[in-house]
Design brief:
Layout: H1 2-26, E1 31-33, E2 37-40, E3 46-53, E4 57-61, E5 70-72, E6 76-77, E7 80-88, E8 98-106, E9 111-118, E10 131-133, H2 142-147, E11 152-154, H3 170-179, E12 183-186, H4 191-197, H5 207-222, E13 226-230, H6 244-264, E14 272-275, H7 285-304, E15 306-307, E16 314-317, E17 337-343, H8 347-350, H9 387-400, E18 408-413, H10 429-449, E19 453-456, E20 463-464, E21 469-470, H11 473-482
Parallel strand pairs: 2-9, 10-15, 11-12, 11-19, 12-13, 13-14, 14-16, 16-17, 17-18, 18-19
Antiparallel strand pairs: 1-3, 3-7, 4-6, 4-8, 5-7, 8-9, 20-21
Helix pairs in contact: 6-7, 9-10, 10-11
Length: about 475
């Protein structure tokens, strides 16, 4: 009897251990946080961190103490859900982003590291008069707005450069409308005007320049034309500096400029769109991450001014190998982002103006497209970038952006036309002219076929901006033909 009792006790102990062992094996400690990083703006800011645990938790820092520029609403708590408010208590005047690591440790054995950043305060704040959101005249989503564009044209080498180009006039805007365009892209420089006026240290845009650009925008909008206003190359301060080293200073200038531009242009309705950049040099995943931060700064700066800018369509750029809707910066206003890319393919045909022996990356090509190749000088025929390649590229843009709900603008496209008096004289000039016509028509047609809206690059060669007449009728006819 005694042996049976001992045996029963042993069985009970084994069963109990086994039961509790199974219980421990199925237990999963709970700890979730709402984000892995928190980024304060360059102004005094407050942000929230949501935390859920099943046990007590505490907060510590890498350097053992809370940084003197940061304040937390609580540094410990019990199980359940908590919201920790983090507040920046002083401006960052160091010239570079400040960083701290928040360590959250839970008694259940779990721990998390949260990176906290504070942007430097390099320029004064220009968001001095934000107003409440105003949806008047802003009813179209980005997709609906882009659908209203028929044909677009650039006023190139004018507002972005000081090349003594005739400045746009009301008569010229009306002339563009009469020729068949209902949208204008305004490449614009801002930093260059600061330098000329001695205000670069504060990033203040001179009022006389702001008013001048605003006047051109008004002429366009008053004539029921859509406007794409950007920060163009502008000396390369953003375009050539998509690097971690320059990230803080460029973001600061991007915010300062776009806050001023957006405030000045805030009363225009949806006819006006803003574009973050032009052709930013970001051709690696690392540099694209930096560029995306510039785009995020652009979005936040415009939205922060309120009014109609709350709903304005904003346009982003980037190498399509590294940017798509999956990594677009977040926008507090849904369905108001679009994408822009440029098409100068094949470049040896469209823009190259010197042969290899002169330092060119290829020999200049004169002949493009089916039926237009030369038998007299075959070395001048295009070998890529013709119809099949163009069609493939357009379909890729459609799949990558449009099919995912992001409308697209082909912000620039153009091709040079050689003549009997130019540097290069094609031996089969008729075939060359036919090639140029075919390129314009084909790209316009295929662009519109997938829902992308084209903006021809024009710097005074097609249109006489003083007399408001057509200089290159063949090019205009080719573009119009592609739109039919």
């Amino acid at each position: 009897m005694k042996k049976k009792l001992i045996y029963s006790i042993l069985v009970l102990l084994v069963t109990s251990v086994s039961f509790f062992s199974c219980q421990n094996e199925t237990y999963v400690p709970l700890m979730t946080v709402s984000t892995k990083s928190i980024s304060f703006s360059d102004d005094l800011d407050s942000l929230n961190l949501a935390l859920t645990t099943d046990n007590k938790w505490t907060i510590s820092f890498d350097d053992a103490t809370i940084p003197d520029w940061l304040q937390l609403s609580q540094t410990s708590g019990n199980s359940g859900s908590s919201t920790i408010k983090l507040k920046s208590t002083s401006l960052n005047t160091t010239g570079a982003t400040r960083r701290a690591i928040v360590r959250i440790t839970c008694d259940n054995g779990q721990a998390r590291r949260i990176k906290v950043y504070q942007a430097p305060k390099i320029y004064p704040s220009y968001n001095t008069s934000p107003i409440a959101a105003d949806a008047t005249g802003m009813g179209s989503t980005a997709t609906e707005l882009v659908a209203k564009i028929k044909l677009g044209v650039n006023i190139g080498n004018t507002l972005e450069l000081n090349l003594n180009q005739p400045y746009p006039t009301l008569a010229y805007i009306q002339f563009l409308k009469q020729t068949g365009f209902n949208a204008v892209r305004l490449p614009c420089g801002w930093n260059s005007h600061n330098v000329n006026n001695g205000n670069n240290s504060t990033a203040k845009i001179p009022q006389v320049w702001m008013d001048s650009v605003k006047q051109v925008v008004k002429w366009c909008v008053d004539n029921d034309m859509y406007v794409l206003l950007n920060i163009h190359w502008d000396g390369g301060w953003l375009e050539n500096n998509c690097t971690v080293l320059k990230q803080d200073s460029v973001n600061a200038k991007q915010k300062a400029f776009w806050t001023q531009i957006a405030t000045a242009m805030r009363d225009f309705d949806e006819h006006l769109m803003f574009a973050s950049a032009n052709e930013p040099n970001a051709q690696t995943p690392e540099t694209m991450d930096v560029l995306l931060s510039y785009h995020k700064t652009f979005i936040d700066a415009v939205r922060s001014t309120g009014g109609r800018n709350t709903y304005r369509t904003l346009v982003l750029q980037g190498d399509t190998k590294y940017i798509d809707p999956s990594n677009f910066p977040t926008d507090p206003t849904p369905n108001r982002l679009a994408f822009e890319w440029h098409n100068y393919s094949p470049t040896s045909f469209t823009i190259l103006n010197k042969d290899k022996e002169e330092g060119g990356w290829d020999n200049v090509r004169f002949y493009w497209g089916e039926g237009n190749h030369s038998t007299i000088e075959p070395e001048r025929n295009c070998t890529f970038g013709e119809e099949a390649d163009q069609l493939k590229d357009f379909q890729a843009i459609k799949a990558q952006f449009i099919d995912k709900g992001i409308p697209v603008l082909m912000g620039e496209y153009s091709v040079q036309r050689w003549s009997a008096t130019s540097k290069f004289i094609p031996k089969e000039l008729d075939k060359h002219n036919a090639s140029v016509d075919a390129w314009w028509t084909y790209l316009t047609k295929q662009c519109l076929a997938i829902g992308v809206k084209p903006f021809a690059w024009e710097t005074g060669g097609v249109f006489d901006r003083v007399n408001n007449v057509v200089r290159d009728q063949r090019t205009l006819d080719a573009v119009i033909a592609g739109s039919k």
